[in-house]
């Protein structure tokens, strides 16, 4: 009996080897967008479907596995009902799933490597505004007074997603853009624009990956700039070079509650302004004498610039740290 069992096991093992040896093929999955942005992944446009395909075999069965952040992925591979042809069409409802196909040819069965439906090459547009500290004042949501001669840089937050841009300097008359609209900034097509004049700025852009998919930033996200010679603008002019013996004393530094600034020879400063790292004016004093303490206990911890104007309108700038 034992001899028969050994013989039977050997017979089955040899037949398995024989079948395996006949599987000289390995199915692969292809699709128009597979690997375009990421290896072995499909990234959709907003409304498109995607057709997965493999080589010609005798029979087919497609499988799906849900994505998970855990490694290894313990979700089961589930056969897709009715998915028994050479191709499989997937769409947005299949995002964040893996796919593979099992094929049979001449009594030999093999499986492909998996591919992933990752998501959309799509995000609503967003704009980042960069202003120079000391050259602007925020006067309301999305509106700034900016000093003449300064500049403001606008950047598309998703430059990888969006390609050709249309930049606006006022509210456009039509979306999509219409040639001849006076609000369009001529020649500005990149993902960055630097403004030096008053206006309301925003953009319309088409995605680079899906060129037929375009989006408007939206008027609520436009930023209004008012360039002018505002009262705070002189804080950035007439600065004295400390290397020429015009050092201004600031102590203690870092400070917790009070700071003292100035030189005895100056006696009185017409104006002392403290500006935070974002360029916002957070404290200001008029007619300050050099030996008076300035209470900074209400300021948040961080780095600040003190701008002082003496009786002769000379400007001094110093940094200090609030602990």
Number of DSSP helices? Answer: 1
Largest beta-sheet characterization: 6 strands, mixed
Radius of gyration: 34 Å
Number of strands: 24
End-to-end separation in angstroms reads 88 Å
Q: What is the string of SSEs from the N terminus onward?
A: HEEEEEEEEEEEEEEEEEEEEEEEE
Overall 3D form: elongated
Give the averaged pLDDT, no decimals. Answer: 83
Poorly predicted residue ranges: 1-21, 236-246
> Level of helix content?
under 10%
Alpha-beta content class: mainly beta
Keywords: Signal
Protein name: T9SS type A sorting domain-containing protein
Organism: Chryseobacterium paridis
Domain Secretion system C-terminal sorting: 250-321
Write structural notes for this entry.
This is T9SS type A sorting domain-containing protein. The protein has 323 residues and is mostly beta strands. The protein has one helix at residues 2-22; strands spanning 41-44, 50-53, 59-66, 78-79, 87-90, 97-105, 108-111, 115-120, 127-131, 136-140, 143-147, 152-156, 162-168, 192-195, 199-207, 214-216, 223-228, 250-251, 258-261, 268-276, 281-289, 294-295, 302-310, 315-322. Strands 1, 3, 4, 6, 7 and 8 form a six-stranded mixed β-sheet that branches. A hairpin with a 2-residue loop joins strand 10 (136-140) and strand 11. Mean pLDDT is 83; it is low at 1-21 and 236-246.
